[in-house]
Amino acid sequence: MVNDIECQSWIGRAVSITYSPDSGLIGRSGMVADETRETITILENDNQIVIGKKSIKFKINDSQSIIDGALMRQRPEERIYRNKRSM
């Protein structure tokens, strides 16, 4: 079953990185400022950080479910539209 947060826009929501091969990214958090097919841009303490989705796992809005960025490598508008259409 698809998680509800995966069907929605992430822009403006809080995000925290739970896994990354780069240990410097784990625990970073902020607000999603932009999202593309391959990246998410996080606004953290007035700094924009662009992170590739392919190599991270993250949580949105302190939810219990962890989102695997490698599985979310699609444009946000395609992800939202496809999931609404399949309901």
Account of the protein in words:
It is a single chain. With 87 residues, the chain is mostly beta strands. The protein has a single domain, classed as SH3 type barrels, CATH 2.30.30. The protein has one helix and six strands. It has one helix at 76-85, and strands spanning 14-19, 29-35, 39-44, 47-52, 57-60, 67-68. It has a six-stranded antiparallel beta sheet, with no helix packed on it. Strand 5 (57-60) and strand 6 form a beta hairpin. The mean pLDDT is 86.
Question: What's the structural blueprint in terms of helices and strands?
Answer:
Blueprint (H helix, E strand, L loop, with lengths): L13 E6 L9 E7 L3 E6 L2 E6 L4 E4 L6 E2 L7 H10 L2
Average of pLDDT: 86
CATH structural architecture: Roll
How far is it from the N-terminal to the C-terminal residue, by CA? Answer: 11 Å
CATH superfamily: Ribonuclease P/MRP, subunit p29
User: In total, how many domains does the architecture comprise?
Assistant: 1
The helical percent reads 10-25%
Strand numbers in spatial order across the main sheet: 4-3-2-1-5-6
Could you tell me the number of beta strands? 6
CATH fold-type name: SH3 type barrels
What percent strand? Answer: 35-45%
Distinct helical segment count: 1
User: Which CATH class?
Assistant: Mainly Beta
Indicate the overall shape. Answer: globular
What structural class should be given to the helix and strand makeup? Answer: mainly beta
The Cα radius of gyration reads 12 Å
Q: How would you characterize the largest beta sheet?
A: 6 strands, antiparallel
Give the H and E element order.
EEEEEEH
Could you list the spans in which at least 5 consecutive residues all have pLDDT below 50?
none
